[in-house]
Amino acid sequence: MAQVNVKSLNKTFPDGTVAVEHLDLEIRDGELFVMLGPSGCGKTTTLRIIAGLEEETSGTVTIGDEVVSGLRPSQRDIAMVFQFYALYPHLSVRDNMAFPLRAAKAPEAEINERVLEAAKMLQLEPYLTRKPSKLSGGEQQRVALGRAMVRHPKAFLMDEPLTNLDAELRADMRAEVKHVQQRLNTTMIYVTHDQTEAMALGHRIAILNKGKLEQLGAPMEVYERPASLFAARFIGSPPMNLIEAEVTNGHLTAAGGMQLLAPEGLKRGQKVIAGVRPERLTVAADGDGARGRVVSREMLGDETIFVVDTEAGLLNVRMPPTARFAEEQAVSVRHIGAAPPAYDPQTEQVVS
Ligand code: ATP
């Protein structure tokens, strides 16, 4: 079993910077767990503490059944892959991948077998005799991944491993990471600030903000019902519309007269902020809804994103490519579908 548990974790750096605060995470055996958040939210520090590269101020980390506090990184049976692939330039791909096993004094036959197994899975067999400088960025990153795989660690820890790659390669490598994780079924903790990457990869996503856990859930849970305005703003592109509204008779009513189904449990007259995904709004030339004017449209081929200026604010609307509204055109925007999540304007937390 290689679940990873983080309990009441705190980290304050000597200069007084609080990087992690009261963090509790229970990462399941075999899970691909993503830590997501903006720069400085504490995700790297948390990963480094799990790896043993940084010491916690208080709290405990358990890997498998073992409390690892005080253990060196090499004693924790984990493998790390960083943003910088850090391959040994003078060693061939084969020797780079064999390195951790040689360091652990594994028998040569076993080393060969494990390197070949990893090379096969990552389609690196043709490159085994090459030096890293003769490989593309994506190939180098695959070697780094292969080097992490050969030891059959209890868990993989990955810190923005794909950041240096161009967009297309990043998408390919993302699929590769997911595939490897599924094949090996090894617990993986993956740190990123890229919400698309988090949504595409994670079995579950932990959103961190200022060293604290903001939300923990499956990608669709986090997408459909962000726990706070911070999470709502962070996940989704274009972002969720945050519309001020008041609870009326069974509805939420926004400025300009837009009506949304009210979620349960709210009081009449209560003021909330409704979180509405762009695909839950629709534009029409006329009809009911908030009247406004098209400010911009972005035609992406498979969809068109309209930004409409209404009394309820600037609204992002995702429409099929057949929707043809011109910039400056007067239109109305209507909500479709189920009741949206509602947030308290003061606490900024979801209330219903
Ligand atoms: P990024 O994506 O930019 O790496 P992050 O979410 O991984 O950000 P951390 O690197 O964990 O964030 O940093 C969390 C906070 O701790 C930041 O405010 C950072 O400036 C601070 N910090 C990190 N390392 C140190 C250090 N050695 N000394 C003092 N403060 C530090």
UniProtKB/TrEMBL annotation:
Q: Which UniProt keywords apply?
A: ATP-binding, Cell membrane, Membrane, Nucleotide-binding, Translocase, Transport
List the PROSITE patterns hit by this protein, alphabetically: ABC_TRANSPORTER_1 (PS00211), ABC_TRANSPORTER_2 (PS50893)
GO molecular function annotations of the record: ABC-type transporter activity; ATP binding; ATP hydrolysis activity
The protein's matches in SMART domains, at most eight in alphabetical order, are given as: AAA
Q: What is the lineage of its organism?
A: Bacteria, Bacillati, Actinomycetota, Thermoleophilia, Solirubrobacterales
Write down what this protein is called: ABC transporter ATP-binding protein
Q: Which GO terms describe its biological process?
A: carbohydrate transport
The segment(s) forming the ABC transporter domain are 4-235
Q: Which InterPro entries does this UniProt record tie to the protein?
A: AAA+_ATPase (IPR003593), ABC_transporter-like_ATP-bd (IPR003439), ABC_transporter-like_CS (IPR017871), ABC_transpr_MalK-like (IPR015855), ABC_transpr_MalK/UgpC-like (IPR047641), Mo/tungstate-bd_C_term_dom (IPR008995), NA-bd_OB-fold (IPR012340), P-loop_NTPase (IPR027417)
Quote the cellular component terms of the Gene Ontology held in the record.
ATP-binding cassette (ABC) transporter complex, substrate-binding subunit-containing
- Return the Pfam families for the record: ABC_tran, TOBE_2
Q: Tell whether Nucleotide-binding is among the UniProt keywords.
A: yes
